[in-house]
Amino acid sequence: MTWFDGKCRCRWANPGNPRYIRYHDEEWGVPVHDDRRLFEMLILEGFQAGLSWECVLNKQEAFRRAFDDFDWDKVAAYDEARQAALYADPGIIRNRRKITAAVGNAAAFAAIRQEFGSFDSYLWQWTGGKTLVERGATTSPLSDAISKDLKKRGMKFVGSTIIYAYLQAVGVLYAHEPGCFLEKKCP
Question: What is the C-alpha separation between 8 and 79, in angstroms, rounded?
Answer without folding.
Answer: 46
